[in-house]
Fold each of these.
Amino acid sequence: MESPLFYFTDPVLRGPTIACMLMCLASSLVGVMVYLRKQSLLGESLSHAAYPGVLGGVLLGVFVFAGLDEGPLLAAFILIGAFLSALLGLWIIEILTRHLSVRNDAALCFVLSMAFGIGITAASRLQFTHTQLYRHVNIYFYGQAATMTDLHVLVYACISLLVVALISLMYKELQLITFDRDFASIIGIRTKTIDTALFILIVLAVVVGIRSVGVVLMSAMLIAPAVSARQWTNRLSVMLILAALFGLSSGFMGNYLSVELGEYFSNKYPNENIALPTGPMIVLVAMGICFVSLFLAPERGLLSRLGRIFLFRYKCIEENFLKALWRINADGDVTWLDLSRRMDTNRILAELVLFQMRIKGYIFRKSFNVYQLTGQGRQRATHVVRLHRLWELYLVDEIGIGAEKVHRNAEEMEHIITPNLEKRLSELLKDPKVDPHQQPIPPSTQKG
């Protein structure tokens, strides 16, 4: 297994590794803006729209410049054709949505399918007329990062520098247009000019990226790093930095795993023809980072959300137990039999909750199956009852709901009313003393 540094120094591996990293950097930064503007399907549509341009560039090189073979000049024709074709696709989307009242998602799907159909039709013809060039065209359809050279590194470096520079220069404008387009127009920002510049960047990122990961997978490299970054932050600047880091990591690890795992499987299974193409591996790494972020991000991750849900539900159960103890006998003994009549809860769960409440100092156990609230537990239980009855009174007096219908809603709201909301309710209801059922509302325990 080679050192990661070897991939930046080896003459064969250096080109694909650095070029893919730069491609992923550019597409990740552009992808953040695409993702935040809720245009995720745009990358997919434009990558497919670029495919007819790839074929057009090949045919132009063959018929206008007779005898043109594979090389930098043909690659230039292909990229220019793909760029113009993608711009045409973008223009058609604009016409359909703005002038023909076609929904945005329908317009994107229309361009995607139309361009793909045209490209496949033209490619099937080229397959029989120019077999060698057809193989070259397939590089852009499926991607072939492993054959990139230092020339590709130079091209990708220029495009990445352009993307970074334009996003840095237009950062404030992009931020305003993305999150509050109307306000941006009011203060005089040229929204159409910014949109045009952004769309050109998207097209550039897509056109250059298809050489690495192909038409089919290009949209993943636009969206996956952006989705990953979004899970870790709410700030645009941090999201751009994280997306760039995730993109760079995907570009490097895709190359690294493609070579190392390919070599490992070749040695382990010498009779099997096992290949791990670089482009798909880059996408798989990006998706892996995305899944890790979706699961493990501290605020938006699935595991953290499940943890918060569990803690909230446990809090509700605990407060319901405290309230039940308070209502049965706030100052005296409460038996398990009395508690079980009020709480329809599994005995094992109930014992666990009661044990935790004893550890927290809310109750103490006088004898087997006999409990009593402590001063701290009584105070918290009284506060829950106060919130319950305040909310019931609010629903009856301010909303006009019948007193017989408010209990269930108050059972839910008592667990989420904040101290600030409690204070506002108390002021609105003029510090009430009884609830709609003429039961006393405990006084507030808030200080100040």
Note: The chain is about 75% helix and 0% strand.
Amino acid sequence: MTVPLDLTMRKLPSRIHRAILVSALLGAIGACSKPEKKAPPTPEAGFVTAKTESVPLTVELAGRTAAYETSEVRPQVSGIVRERLFTEGKIVRAGQTLYQIDASLYRAASAQAQANLQNASAAREAAQAKADRYRPLAKIEAVSQQDLTDASAAARQAGAGVAQTRAALDTANINLRFTRIAAPITGRIGRSLVTPGALVTSAQVSPMTTIQRLDPMFVDIQQSSADFLALRRALASGGLGMSSAAVKLTLEDGSDYAPTGTVQFAEAMVDANTGSVTLRARFPNSDGLLLPGMYVRARLAQGIALSAILVPQQAISRDAKGGATLLLVGPNNKAVQRAVSADRAIGNKWLVTKGLKPGDRVITEGLIRIKPGQAIKPVPAGSKPAPIKKRAGS
């Protein structure tokens, strides 16, 4: 190959001249040996085939624990507290004596009521005897009928007096019994808010102590009324099936609570302040890990989607408006983009409610190399990639 040179270059030194000549020759050789561009290989597209299945729809909701039973212990009679007969924080049994109030006044009132009853009984016996004597005398007109009537009425009055004094005696005995304050339920008792020597009254507002039954334990779960209404409509339409009422808990520290609970009922009213409905679940608590007032997260399946289609999360992409799209293996093995409805995540998959049908092949692998309308090589997801062919001479 001849390389034309300018005449002025002939005047350059021979060393520079040779360098320019070599550079020109190398450029010409490189231009002649430049390889031709080859078309890029068809990208592989791993796909899964869409199918319907029954999927439990699990929700996670906030909740608070509450004692199964709570009793605020208050006095039913007034008096001075003489003794406290329990250990704070321990388990107490129903009927166990907790406090003893000074009973001297109530014991005296009971004795007085007993004496009044004996007096009334004696008066009744005398009045009844007089009425019995007048009855035959009235028949022979030894006494007037009015005297008999008065004697009979006096006997009945005496009998009523006995009933009244007996009721007073019962009241006195009840008040005497109330001086021994007993536990109304079995449970764990809290701290005592009164000490021996304190004056308590039957009308006081503050409790003396509180007893809570902590096994089992309630969990009050809050769900928005809108979600609750949507669930009931879905169940009524037949799109969802009923699921078991099992509930799992996540505690405040993020750990899972091992025992499983069951939903007892849903409140038939909406809280006007929060717009939520309360669901109450019951949990065993034999080890006492749950305490009243704890914040928990509850997971429960409220229904079963009978004909659901699940798609791996990596297959779904979102547009600027938040709409869900995915790529399918279309006719002639070309990628086809389709808009779908995917608003609920189930584990590591999306629940697709619109836009897919059973048998569609959803692309889940190789998405970074695929564009809509591009020719692809579909392979089942998880397949080994095809080996890369080495070029000859490399």
Note: The radius of gyration is 47 Å.
